[in-house]
Amino acid sequence: MDLRHLRYFVTVAQELNVTRAAARLHIAQPSLSLRIHKLEQEVGAELFDRVGRSIRLTQAGRLFLEQAHKTLADVDRGITLARQAAKGETGQLSIGYNAPAAFKVFPKIVPAFRRKWPNIHLTFHSLLGQQQLDGLRRDELDLGFVWLPVATEELDVQELLKEPLIAVLPAGHRLARASAVRIKDLSQEPMILPARDLHPDTYRDIEQRFASAGATLNVAYQLENSLSMINFVAMGIGCSILPDYASTIRHDGVVYRPLRPANFTKTLAIIKKKGRTDLARTFVQFTLQTLRAG
Q: What is the three-class DSSP state of 106?
């Protein structure tokens, strides 16, 4: 069945006048009458009662009109979705992320992205960096937010922001009143660090900073995540070093202080597998543009 004939039928049903319907459709009235007649033959039922120049829908015509509206609406929606998909405006994205992205990126990006592209369904997965890389390689993830460095041979990598590392101290600690803390000030202090096997790059960076400062690194505990580390600091068990996003986690038992020198930073990046879909590129471009706009 030709969809044009359905549209012609709906227009005639709305006008209940072939001449006016033909004018709306910009076709000749005899041609429209012929096409409606062919449609009735195809359906196998009369759709209009014709009394002189006036017409009205038959019972079959009224039922067929309901279905014609539904069919045309479904087709129109399908066309819209197909065009949106071609432009990267519909579909779904599976996104891996770490804690800094949740605190520093998502509040700016996710609500705005959802407003602009409500037909793109986003799913989020809190994962360590290596887990995200594995997920991208297996096509279980479309995008990831990780600390650099990462191997770039099979990935598109875009830097998002640099995050200074800060000292996390028990509220009653001798350094808690200082305006800033040097690495050397933490020499021999019990330190609560991210687990070496889960966060090898961060652990190695801290080791190197202590060595460069001539300070002794005294590791009391290695923990899985920032929240656990902050809680242990609040118990008075030791001090920690975390990226600045952690200072948004309020805890009466800890204070956060800048580290000196101030060039001790980590870089957060958004990554995707090379050659991913327009949809993944759309999210990356939107993220970069939004963050650069401030």
A: helix
Closest of 61, 59, 51, 60 to residue 9, by C-alpha: 61
Query: pLDDT of 82-96, one tens digit each?
Result: 776 666 666 889 999
- Ordered by start, the domain boundaries in the chain are 3-86, 91-160+269-292, 163-266
Q: Are 99 and 202 in contact (CB under 8 A)?
A: no
Q: Are 124 and 97 in contact (CB under 8 A)?
A: yes
Superfamily in which the 91-160+269-292 domain is placed by CATH: Periplasmic binding protein-like II (3.40.190.10)
Q: Please tell me whether residue 199 adopts helix, strand or coil conformation.
A: coil
* Topology agreement, domain 91-160+269-292 and domain 163-266: yes
The 3-state DSSP class for residue 203 equals helix
Q: 232 with 249: CB under 8 angstroms?
A: no
SS3 call for 124 = strand
Q: What is the C-alpha radius of gyration for the chain, rounded to an integer number of angstroms?
A: 32
Task: Please name every residue paired with 124 in a beta bridge, in sequence order, or none if there are none.
Answer: 95
Residue 192 three-state SS: strand
DSSP string, 132-182: HHHHHHTTS-SEEEEESP---TTEEEEEEEEEEEEEEEETTSTTTTSSSEE
CATH of domain 163-266: 3.40.190.10
- Residue 293's φ and ψ, nearest 5 degrees, are -75, -10
pLDDT tens-digit profile of 260-276? 988 899 999 999 998 86
CATH of 3-86, one of 3.40.50.300, 1.10.472.10, 3.40.50.1010, 1.10.10.10: 1.10.10.10
Largest Cα–Cα distance of the chain, in whole Å? 104
Amino acid at 103: F
Q: Considering the entire predicted model, what is its pTM? A: 0.70
